[in-house]
Amino acid sequence: MARAIVVGMSGSDGVVPELSRGTLRTLQRASGDLAAASVAEMEERLPWFRRMPADQRAGVLLLIQSGVAGFVSWLHDPQQAIRLTAEAFRSAPKDLSRWVSLRQTVELVRIALELFEQLLPKLADGDAERALLTEGVLRYGREIAFSAATSYAAAAEARGAWDARLEALVVDGIVRGDAEESLLSRATALGWDPAAEATVLVGNPPSDDPPAVIFEVRSRAARISRPVLLSVQGSRLVVVLGGETESGDALVRLADAFGAGAVVAGPSVSSLADAHRSASDALSGLRAVVGWPAAPRPVRSLDLLPERALAGDPEAEWQLVDRIARPLEESGGALLETVDAFLEVGGVLEACARRLFVHPNTVRYRLRRVTELTGRNANDPRDALVLRVALSVGRLARARGLW
Known about the structure:
- The protein is mainly α.
- Helix content is about 65%, strand content about 5%.
- The chain has three domains: about 20-160, Globin-like; about 180-300, Alpha-Beta Plaits, CATH 3.30.70; about 315-400, Arc Repressor Mutant, subunit A (Orthogonal Bundle), CATH 1.10.10.2840.
- It has helices spanning about 20-45, 45-50, 55-75, 80-90, 95, 100-120, 125-175, 180-190, 210-225, 250-255, 275-290, 305-310, 315-330, 335-345, 350-355, 360-375, 380-400, and strands spanning about 200-205, 230-235, 235-240, 265, 300.
- Helix 11 links the parallel strand 4 (about 265) and strand 5 (about 300).
């Protein structure tokens, strides 16, 4: 005789009626038919299951057969075998989860258990065994459901860890200026639109706990409905913000996710493929921003061109030449002469006019033309500094034969 098993529906002595060896053998022989019947029921009730490729449906069939076999093993030894079966079901969804979601897995398990509850009691020998099988199916099904949920949770954690590593690789690649193809393929795997505008922000992380930093940045990005890629690189936080930043509001709100200190935003570029230029300028600005204590937060790297040039950034020097010195020189000598004179007399309009022997209105007109050409207003103290440094850098570059 088979030994008695305890499943919780026992009498006063804690023992339930035995399953006969004949019933156990019948269950073992019926495992294949039960699995096939379950798959047939799934195909009938679940349209998405019918659309699955044959090999994936076959994988579900094998999983159900394994479940029935595990159920029979558990009936032999309910304490140890259910642990082994739970482990088997934890490992199975690692493959299953690639093409079946957790919600869909719950639907599959529910249909299989409904069919087992309907068919298994018919295989029992007598009412006592039917009651035993019914409760056994319920308890075993609960264990399977918990195992599947645990497996999907573990898979989600693993995917999250992998996504975090992949995201760090993408951001590191942007900072280093890696090959476009590899960077874009990795970013696409993370759900980033390669054609979206991108702006790189750099600054100090708000804490020493990387998961907390990631949560803070993502929370703020979610509030403004913007995609982000980020990486904590030692004492530096690098964030790639997707979408336009013309208004600057998104930059200001995301800057609140950074720690104390300056936050520098590189220029917005048309796609992620050019994001290395934004990162390079932003990092250059972060190194030079100490030269402008009153810099806003965040500050654009373009607004730090004088400090970057003084710190030895050749790209900043070239941008000052290209944006300011060259347009002024090519416009004719009058504008360049007026800017020089205006800066030399400390921004006093009448003194500039006397030095140039022109009417003050002529000086005003020329300064307006300077603003139109360069975007810099010589009457503004900050813009006056930019103009002065740009003209000095331009003359030094010309003396070296660079333009």
